[in-house]
Amino acid sequence: MSCPFKACLGHSTADARQHWMDMHGNTDVDESLSAKPDGPLFFWQLYSLMGAERIERILHAFYTRVYADNEEPWFRRAFSQIGDLEHHVERQTEFWIDAFGGGPQYHGGDGRINIHHQHRAAHIMNARGAGRWMYHMTLALNDDTDWSEEDPRVKPCLVDFLETRMRKYAAAHRWEFDAHDFDLLRVEFADNSPTVVPPKDHSTAATPSHVGSSPSFDDGTSSVDEQKNAQSVCH
């Protein structure tokens, strides 16, 4: 059965895919944009399974939490000073669709992201900001997203994408990537139990100690390994 959404290259897809392969040390992967019925799923194939609406739903949940963050108002202000909630949902949705094989949605690709991070978001491009970003994304994915009808490979694939990007940003902005920011995302997608994220005191580091290593889970497995037991047809 074919995947429900037609995929095509975006402005960011090829560069993001190449970065993933370089970081994972793996070039022997399926570079096609449409997900196969079984086997590993890669982030550049996510659009073919999810489409735009489900991607936007995740990001709306995420930014709703960001804009309601009264515990760390410095983090909320970093976004509200740039635009309203809908502005950020639209821009991030465009980037995810573009990177996930949904066609040219995010004009400028990584170059545009780099300019934004350097000139508009530099004050949160550090370990503290990354930790708070992942705090809200963890809640959005674990508590606000219904995975019951989703291909079971999608969530671990999305988590791998987020970790790969966060490692990239940590290397570019010279903070120490903290793999523990992802601990509560490494659960079975069907586990809908409430998520409790403990507060963390992040500090920036002058030189990242393990940025650029192949993303893996604390038990030594990767998201591709996790997907081997979570295979289903496109639906």
UniProtKB/TrEMBL annotation:
The keyword Nuclease is annotated on this UniProt entry: no
UniProt keywords, alphabetically: Heme, Iron, Metal-binding, Transport
GO molecular function term, any single one: heme binding
Family: Belongs to the truncated hemoglobin family. Group II subfamily.
Gene3D superfamilies: Globins
Entry superkingdom: Eukaryota
Positions of the UniProt region annotated as Disordered: 195-235
Pfam families (alphabetical): Bac_globin
Biased composition regions of type Polar residues, renumbered to the chain: 204-235
Keyword Metal-binding: yes
PANTHER family membership: TWO-ON-TWO HEMOGLOBIN-3 (PTHR47366)
Lineage: Eukaryota, Sar, Alveolata, Dinophyceae, Noctilucales
InterPro entries membership: GlbO/GLB3-like, Globin-like_sf, Globin/Proto, Hemoglobin_trunc
Protein name: Globin
